[in-house]
Amino acid sequence: MKTLAEIMGRVAVPLVTPFHPNEDVNHEALAQLVDFVITRSFCDSLIITGTTGEFYSLTGEERLEIWKTAREACRGRVPLVASVGAASTRAAIRFAQIAEKMGFDVAMCLLPYYSRPTQDGILRHFQAVAGATSLPILVYNIPLFTGVNMEPETLEQLVRLPNIRGIKEEAGIQPTQATAFALRTAEDFSIYCGDDTMVLQVLPQRGVGVVSGGSQAIGNWMKAMIAAYYAGDNRKASAIYFRLAPFFASLNQNGRINPIPILRAAIERVSGIPIGPPRSPQVAATAQEMAVAGAILDGLVKDNVNPPSRTAQGQLAS
After folding, report:
1. β-sheet bridge partners, residue 310
2. The pLDDT value given to residue 256
3. Is 41 left (phi over 0), alpha (psi -120 to 50) or beta?
4. Beta-ladder partners of 275
5. CB atoms < 10 A from the CB of 64, how many?
6. What is the 3-state secondary structure (H, E, C) of 251-302?
């Protein structure tokens, strides 16, 4: 039985959902984006209608149509992960079963949001979803947005189910929880960093890779950083990390908690694909925000994974 890391690889990219100016889904642009990310080798696998894809703003019918478009555009070139998370257990079960029928490789299931269930409620939710499909399941823990956390003790009970195979951990607000997960799970349980800014912090905690929205724009850099880490070249991995940090910080300008609006504009800048604005109530990136993010991004594109060397003290060399 393959581990999730063997299926999904080191860099799983959660695609944005392109929209027309009137906020209708732009399926043509979505197909172009799938091809762009794959042909540029920015990903090892693709996640469809995750948080970065603004699933919370989509109708159920729209979500399934997006899955169809992505599957057809992918043409089996990389593994596909269906984001099946929903506020209710019944809806998550339905999406998981449809994903299996459609031939997805993995189901990523978000913790239930808005209702803020107890740990027992979270446990029962995942038991029900896992029991309704034979797909391997990637648990998605992002308490920043859901308001609830997957406690390590709860995960320890969940991994007794054969298809609960990994977790995507949003590590920004709980940097060492990945260690608690690792201590309570077997070696073949895959721990993915869910925060682009925390990859080098999670990998030593038995992390296997990252679910990286930013890699739709800078996937070559992300892959190079992770490759350097696993090759034992920590100096190079650190140098790349410090090149990427300003770009990721630029996605949260002006107090934005959600980086998606500026990320969408960044992807459009790199790819030339009409990604369009986010769905309301999110507000599109401003010209001033893109002046900052775009300048950093242009430098990364120009340098093409050629970070400056670092001194032994960790300072950038001149």
Report:
1. 316
2. 96
3. left
4. none
5. 17
6. CCHHHCCCCHHHHHHHHHHHHCCCCCCCCCCCCCCCHHHHHHHHHHHHHHHH
Report the distance separating Cα 152 and Cα 60, nearest Å.
31
- Structural domain total, the chain: 1
Whether 224 maps to a domain, the answer reads no
**CATH number of the domain encompassing residue 171:** 3.20.20.70
Q: Which of 56, 140, 192, 302 is catalytic?
A: 140
Q: What is the DSSP letter of 111?
A: P
Which residue blocks in the chain are alpha helix, DSSP H? 4-8, 27-39, 60-74, 89-102, 119-131, 143-146, 152-158, 177-183, 199-202, 215-230, 234-250, 260-271, 287-303
Above 60 in pLDDT, residue 204?
A: yes
Given a cut of 50, is residue 272 above it in pLDDT? Answer: yes
* Active-site residue, from 168, 223, 229, 236: 168
Query: Is residue 121 situated within a structural domain?
Result: yes
Tell me which residue range forms the domain holding 95: 4-219
Residues 96 and 107: beta-carbon distance below 8 Å: yes
Has residue 315 got a pLDDT over 60? no
Q: Bridge partners of 110?
A: 140
275-309: per-residue pLDDT in tens?
Answer: 999 999 999 999 999 999 999 999 999 997 765 54
Query: Does the residue 117 lie in any domain?
Result: yes
The residues near 183 (Cβ < 8 Å, ≥ 6 apart) are: 152
Is 241 designated active site?
Answer: no
% of the chain with per-residue pLDDT over 70: 96
pLDDT in tens, 208-238: 999 999 999 999 999 999 999 999 999 999 9
Catalytic status, residue 236: no
Question: How is residue 205 annotated by DSSP?
Answer: G
Instruction: Give a yes or no: residue 34 inside a domain.
Output: yes
